[in-house]
Amino acid sequence: MRILITGANRGLGLALSQVGAERGHQILAGVRDPQKSKESLTQSEIYKSISFLPLDVTDEESVSVAAHFVKENFGTIDVIINNAGILLERGKRLEDLDLDQVKITFEVNFFGPIRVVKHFLPLLMMGDRSSIINISSEAGSITNAYGGDYAYASSKTALNMFSQQLSQYVQSNNVHVYSIHPGWIRTDMGGESAPGSPIDTAKGIFDIIERKRVIDSRNVFITYEGHSMPL
C-alpha cells in the first residue's frame, strides 16, 4: 500500500514510517523540512521505500501542492495517517491560557487533518480498501475529561467528531476511518517515563490498516489495539 503519514520525522510518526517500510509499504513521509528529516528516516536499506514530501499541515497551499505532486508522481494513495500534532499550554490554568497558543493547537491538531483529507481524499477514493487514521488521544474523551490541557483535549475531541462525520461520508466507498488513541508512549510529547513504546503502537495501527483486526465498535474512536474508546 501507498501510505501518507504527516509528522513523519519523529515520535509516533517516525515509528509508523519505520514499521510501514518494514512491512513492505511505500511511505510518503510528510514533513515540514525534508532535509532535516532524512537522517532519522534513512538509517537502513529498507527505508528506500520512504519518499519525503514537503508538507505543512497548517498551510493549505502547502497541502494542496503536496497533493498535486503525489497525483502527478504516484497517482493514488491507499492510506492517510494524520499524525502531526502538538501539545501547547500544558497544565495551564484556564485563567492563564494564551488563546493564540490555543488557536495554533487547533490549526495543527484539528484543521490540519481536515486540510489533508480535503486535498488527498480524491486520490484515496480511487482504491477499494482504503483507510484514514487520525491520531487522537484519550484526552479527547468527554466521558473521561480530567479538567486540564484545555487546548489539546478540546482539539482532539473536535478531531473525534470530524472522524465520525468523515466515516459516514466515505462508508459507501469501503473506506475505513478511525480516530485512534495511541496510548501513553515514549515520545517528546509523552515523555521518557511513559510506559508504552511507539513501535508497539505503530504495529497495532498497521494491523488495523491491514485489516488484520476485526473492529467491533459503533464509534470510530478506538485504541491502537482496536478496542472501543468512550466518547
Structural class: alpha/beta
Strand order of the largest sheet: 3-2-1-4-5-6-7
Low-confidence stretches: none
- The fold-level CATH name is Rossmann fold
Number of helices: 6
Report mean pLDDT, rounded to a whole number.
92
Number of strands: 7
Question: Would you identify the CATH architecture?
Answer: 3-Layer(aba) Sandwich
List SSEs in N-to-C order.
EHEHEHEHEHEHE
At the first level of CATH, the class is Alpha Beta
User: So what's the overall shape?
Assistant: globular
Distance between the termini: 30 Å
Q: What is the strand content?
A: 5-15%
- Fraction of residues in helices? 40-55%
**Rg value:** 17 Å
Largest sheet: 7 strands, parallel
How would you describe the overall organization of this protein?
The chain has one domain (2-223): Rossmann fold (3-Layer(aba) Sandwich). It is globular and about 50 Å long. It is α/β, with parallel strands linked by helices. The protein has a seven-stranded parallel β-sheet, with helices on both faces. The longest helix is centred in the middle third of the chain and has 26 residues, at 99-124. The chain has helices at residues 11-22, 34-41, 60-73, 99-124, 150-170, 198-209, and strands at 2-6, 26-31, 50-54, 79-82, 131-135, 176-181, 221-223.
